[in-house]
Amino acid sequence: MFGSSPVTVVITSEADTWDIDASSCLGCGQFVDWDRMPDPEQQAHIPRDILSKPSKELKKLAREGYWATSRTLRAQVYHQLIQQVTCRLVTPDALVYRDVASRLFGKSSVSSHPLPEFLEGCSMPTYCLNLEGITALKKILICVGNLFPDITYSPILPSLVALLLHYSEDEAQCFENISRLIASNAPHTSYIDQSFLAHQASCMTFGDLANKHCPAAHKLIASTSENVFEVYCEWLSWLFHDLPFTYAIRVFDVYLLEGQKVLYRIALALLKQYRLSVTSAELEGTDIKADLQAFVQNIAEHVTVDKLLERAFGIRLFSRKEIWLLQMANRKALMERGITMVQSRQSFHLAVDMQNFSSSIVTAQEMRIIWSWIPERFSLFPPLLLFSTSEDGCSLQRFYTCCEGYEPTVLLIKTTEGEVCGAFLSSDWSERKKSGATSGFFGTGECFVFTVRPETERYEWVFIKKPELAKAVPRSRQRSPSPSPASPLSSSPDGRSTSSNRLTVPTPQRKSRLSPFLAIRHFLLPSKTASMFMSGSHEGIIIGGGGGQALSLDADLLWGHTEHCDTFDNPPLCQENFKVQLLEVWGFQNA
Question: In 3-state terms, what secondary structure has residue 84?
Fold first, then answer.
């Protein structure tokens, strides 16, 4: 979530000791309606040294709900964790709140003060707060608006303040804690989205992660919703508005320790659980956005909070760095689209206008499915036909001329047998020129291949499905091996001879300009053969390499071959040796 960077929460070292001082929490609970609190206070044994434990052990305790049974422990943990967050030198504290609140409100009613503009159109969950708590919530939000004028849009802020109020001594303590989260300035760290641009980038990032990690749910949503992104825009509301209090507070437990990445995990787990609970037939004619909201609100009927968290932490996401790079790319795309920091929320992201879409290979509905697979920052823009064999002829040189200067692109192929397949290609075809006389592979892990007819299926980079195979850390002065000279009938990387209808398999090029997200230079890969995305020469083009070629086309764009390859772990995308009936390349307007 939160801004443009992944969250790195500062945790005390093993040498630090946080004693639990129960006396400091005696006043906690004045804002709570105890009749609505699901769990009564339980007297749990609280070791005095619990907060001196290593961060790894603290995370484990939070995931298991260790302090869920003790209000005193949870209140103290929250306060201590937030006090350890590094933030701007001049950050409003409890004393500032008391001064500003007395000046703002005096003896007047809170109702006479409008809520900050950054909450326009935002909901305000109150969970188990009593009337005093609801008044305190509004006062704190008004003071936040007064003391943080740079906040222009923050729909999640009311929920976080409301949750903190359940475990705060008074308004001033709650204000100080939320202020520290707002003012966090640790490198690559931001807890709370504070602009429309940051919020939308977070939603796009979640959409990208759902596309990769919840393919079944994503496919269901794409096939039943006119606007997939509109559904994903609610992901934070699922966590901090729709979830029952007992679930939301457990999410907050782990969020304070583990940051943004854990929110993505839990929202993805909710999406996976939703897919298990519904069928396509049940959703026909249904408002899926409202149906998802109702599902989350009644989540206790489907899965316990412990099981939900267990499943969330079983999802293998990429590193915080990779997620941050994706967030940055999404922010950049939004800014190119004209979205600004001070913009109010509006409906700017519309699905591709299929009324005006026309292709000789795929239908509008089929293109909508393909578009739903594409990273969010590119699907902001409508498709643009760059090349078609029916209009431009069967010339590889013409193919390159029409496609150069555009990235990414979508390649569509229709065979003479009526089968349709293709590829999403993340990099400009001009990259092929950078390897000189030899051919090299280029592209990023966002590339994928797919089939449309007879079956609709996508095959992504193998490390997306199995991220444990690659360690996502920066390399140190590591270079790809020098490319070997290409010859029409050279052997493949695994030593097997190639048949006459296959192109040369080039080794990866020495240097290339890669897109920032999922660039292979960010990963320590066990094998180069599983990161061969795209390659082009005067002989033809290759998509996917290693042990075979997912797609290869000759210089006349007339004959092709498809087979399993290590990069995408795909089956043949159509008949192994095929003749091209039509070929199209689509780019993105203004991308």
Answer: coil
Q: Determine the Cα–Cα distance for residues 431 and 427; give it in Å rounded to an integer.
A: 7
Task: Please say whether the beta carbons of 82 and 177 come within 8 A.
Answer: yes
Q: For residues 455 and 2, what is the distance between their CA atoms, to the nearest angstrom?
A: 38
Token duo for residue 379: 């699907």
Q: Using DSSP, state whether 145 is helix, strand or coil.
A: helix
Phi and psi at residue 129, in whole multiples of 5°? -75, 145
**Helix, strand, coil: what percent of the chain each, to 5?**
45, 10, 45
Please state, in angstroms and as integers, the Cα–Cα distance from residue 56 to each residue in 11, 59, 188, 257, 415, following that order.
Answer: 10, 5, 20, 10, 54
For 418-449, write each residue's pLDDT tens digit: 999 999 999 999 988 886 655 688 888 889 99
**DSSP code at position 297:** H
CB atoms within 10 A of CB 500: 6
- Nearest CA to 564 out of 581, 582, 544, 579 is that of 544
Long-range CB pairs of 101-105 (<8 Å, 24+ gap) are 101/139, 101/143, 101/171, 101/172, 104/142, 104/143, 104/146, 105/139
Q: Where are the alpha helices (DSSP H) in 429-496?
A: 462-465
pLDDT digits (tens, 9 = 90+) for 470-505: 554 443 333 333 333 333 333 333 433 344 344 444
Cβ–Cβ < 8 Å for 374, 450: no
Measured distance CA(113)–CA(212) in Å, rounded:
45
pLDDT digits (tens, 9 = 90+) for 326-364: 888 888 888 877 776 655 544 444 445 666 788 999 988
Query: Cis peptide before 454, with omega less than 30 degrees from 0?
Result: yes
In angstroms, rounded to a whole number, what is the distance separating the alpha carbons of residues 226 and 57?
44
User: Which of the four pLDDT bands, split at 50, 70 and 90, describes residue 203?
Assistant: very high
Provide the 8-state DSSP code for 485.
P
What is the pLDDT confidence band of residue 552, given thresholds at 50, 70 and 90? Answer: very high
Token readout for 72 is: 């005193």
Cα dist from 129 to 156, 253, 326, 396, whole Å = 17, 18, 37, 67
Contacts of 209 (CB under 8 A, 6+ apart): 264, 268, 317, 323
Residue located via tokens 């969020």: 255
The two tokens of residue 30 are: 């004045």
Torsion over CA of 256, 197, 206 and 159, rounded to 10 degrees? 40
pTM recorded for the entire structure:
0.75
Tally of CA atoms within 13 A in the half-sphere of 324 that contains its CB:
14
Distance CA 510, CA 434 (A): 9
Longest dimension (CA), the chain: 89
**CB-CB neighbours of 249 under 10 Å:** 21
Q: What is the domain partition of the chain in residue ranges?
A: 196-243+262-336, 354-588
- Please calculate the CA angle 542-543-548 and round it to the nearest 5 degrees: 80
What Å distances lie between residue 102 and 69, 99, 139, 143, 503, CA to CA?
36, 5, 11, 10, 77
- The closest of 38, 29, 36 to 74, measured between CA atoms, is 29
Closest to 348 in 3D by CA, of 230, 500, 184, 199: 230
